[in-house]
Amino acid sequence: MVEAVYFGTLIPLLFLVIVIQGEYRKLILFFAWGLTSAMLIYLINILIDAYFFLDETLLLSQIIPLMEEFLKILPVFFLIRKKGKVYRYNLVRFVMASGIGFSILENYLYLSISASSGLGGSIIFIITRSLTASLLHGSTTALIGYAVQIMHNYNFFSLFLALGMYILAASIHSIYNLLGLTKGLQVIAILIPIFLFMFEFYLFNFFGRKGIRQNRVEIPVKPEIKGGTK
Question: How far apart are CA 209 and CA 80, in angstroms?
Answer without folding.
Answer: 21
